[in-house]
Amino acid sequence: MTTTDRVLREVESARDELVDFAAELIRIPTVNPPGDLYRECAEAIGRRLGEFGYDVDFVTAEDSAEHSDEHPRVNVIGVRPGQRPRPLVHLNGHFDVVPVGAGWTVDPFGGEVRDGKLYGRGSADMKAGLAAAVYAAEAVRRAGVELNGTVEVSGTVDEESGGFAGVAHLAEIGRIAADRTDHVIIPEPLDVDRVCLGHRGVYWFQVTAHGRIGHGSMPFLGVNAIEQMGTLLEEIRTGLGAALEQRSTAMPVAPPAARRGSININSIIGGQAGEPTQTPCVADRCEAIFDRRFLIEEGFDQAKQEITDLLGDLSRRDEKRRYELSDLMVVHPTLTPEEDPLVHSLRGSIDAVLGRPAELVASPGTYDHKHVARIAGVESCVAYGPGRLEQAHQPDEWCAVDDMVDSAKVMALTLLDLLG
User: Fold this and answer.
1) Which residue among 89, 105, 397, 409 is least enclosed by CB atoms within 10 Å?
2) Do the Cβ atoms of 291 and 263 come closer than 8 Å?
3) For residue 174, how many other CB atoms are within 10 A of its CB?
4) Residues 239-292: pLDDT tens digits?
5) What are residue 419's phi and psi, to 5 degrees?
6) Strand, coil or helix: what is 228?
7) Cα–chain-centroid distance for residue 173?
8) H-type helices in 73-219, by residue range?
9) Contact yes or no for 334/219 (Cβ under 8 A)
């Protein structure tokens, strides 16, 4: 029996263990915000890594704005050295999940398996992927293979809110860094036959429209900020929004409809919001938060300049209009080259396990690749894992058990290929 056959056999033998471990993680409701039970989940992952021969370390982002005594930002890293320190492959998964929301027909934190699917909040995004990564590396160990390089596995926090206390923190303190880390696999739910090379850019910003308060019976004596915001929204809908529909990227973003630039209104608050009773006043303030997804061909500078120019033009056309622009978050696009050794290895492993060629895609949203590339400086990074992207953040979220096992097989063969 070949080494490859032994490793694949070990993954298959661990099917029930893998599913049970993913279900165990789902039953820890690590909802973000606010960041519940991070320590408990990190410790559960750490116990399993310790049982599998890793040197386990807990890294708390104590200096992060998100960290508190009530909601500590605790990450976990397991290191299993090979014959040499390098090459080093880092398998990273976030364990925070978004709030449950309405519409569930199963217990969102029950970890129930039914009809070949593991249900629960975070099953697809991405506790099943994290469990698959753990058992991919474990299958190599159980097969008796001594690798030439090092395997690391990390469970990190706050990806759903930007990842700044998670992967960004690990990169800032050098735990993920170009001078020690060669390849990073993030098992996000992009489907088992897809390798995700990167993602579009994000510009979150707030616009505040300033008006002048006045009596509601004499609105002509005031300036209604909500009306000013309405003018901006209409200009975006008919002008900028329509222009973005005509722009397309060469990146293989999935689904294809996301290959265009976009702008979304995330929230809007105006007038005397929060008052217990209505007030007979002209609204003197209105705030809106926008989510602008920009293409690698556009770049951030162009994306912001278009907003700045639009606000300036509206103000020039009517001196009563006053707008204030505030940046909230900027994420630049990332794209790992198709010829990267990690991409090449994963494609070969997918073909070997699934019997069909891999599809190369890019994500419509961002994930922790952004921190690996820009802070850690590690160029060889992709997302690959079980689950369908369309299941992320949905009620009755699920991940197919077969996909969990197949993705573990793919990652195990990739570890064999890269680490020898």
Assistant:
1) 105
2) yes
3) 12
4) 999 999 999 999 999 999 999 999 999 999 998 765 556 788 999 999 999 999
5) -105, -10
6) helix
7) 21
8) 128-142, 167-172
9) no
Please name the residue that has the structure tokens 């007030």. 279
The 8-class DSSP code of residue 389 comes to G
Give the residue from 37, 41, 28, 24 showing the smallest Cα distance to 113: 24
Q: CA-to-CA distance for 229 and 210, rounded, in angstroms?
A: 9
Domains and CATH numbers, the chain: 3-199+334-419 (3.40.630.10), 201-331 (3.30.70.360)
Ramachandran area for residue 275 (φ above 0: left; ψ -120 to 50: alpha; else beta): beta
pLDDT at 420: 84
Rounded to whole angstroms, how far apart are CA atoms 401 and 116?
Answer: 6
Question: Could you give the CA distance from residue 148 to residue 189 in angstroms, rounded to a whole number?
Answer: 29
- Classified as helix, coil or strand, 102 is coil
**Sequence-separated (6 or more) residues with CB below 8 Å from residue 89:** 149, 150, 151, 152, 182, 183, 184, 185, 414, 415, 418, 419
Torsion of CA 19, 397, 265, 167, to 10 degrees: -10
Q: What are the backbone angles phi and psi of residue 175, rounded to the nearest 5°?
A: -75, -30
Angle at CA of residue 203, ends 286 and 343, nearest 5°? 155
Task: Judge contact between 389 and 193, C-beta under 8 A.
Answer: no
- Polymer length in residues for the chain: 420
What is the radius of gyration, based on Cα positions, of the chain? 24
